[in-house]
Specification:
2 helices, 30% helix, alpha+beta, 100 residues, three-stranded mixed sheet, three-stranded antiparallel sheet
Length: 100
């Protein structure tokens, strides 16, 4: 069963689709997950109910120049999660010792 998000603006409709398959978790079909969860076999996950996550998908769609139709969400997920992780990792304060 596919999951996903539908985005619309100025009459254009774009659907980001996450189709079920091996190594993929969709919250809509997993007994232990919430309905907005998508997770791939590499452990990259996103909560499609979070506005920051939706915004990250919108930004990536814009970067690719897509304006309407249907996009494979699994193809977008690695880039989106990498960007979200980078945004969540604060810079080290000046004078901090080097990390591991």
């Amino acid at each position: 069963m596919p999951g996903g998000a539908t985005l619309g603006r100025d009459g254009a409709v774009l659907r980001i689709v996450f189709r079920d398959g091996p190594g993929r978790v969709l919250g809509t079909g997993a007994a232990y997950a919430h309905s907005g969860l998508v997770c791939d076999e590499q452990g990259r996950r996103a909560n499609l109910h979070r506005p920051a996550v939706v915004r990250a998908f919108v930004d990536e769609v814009r970067r690719r120049g897509s304006t309407g139709g249907e996009l494979d969400g699994w193809e977008l997920l690695p880039v989106v999660t990498l960007g979200l992780e980078a945004a969540a990792t604060p810079e080290a304060p000046p004078g901090s010792p080097p990390g591991p």
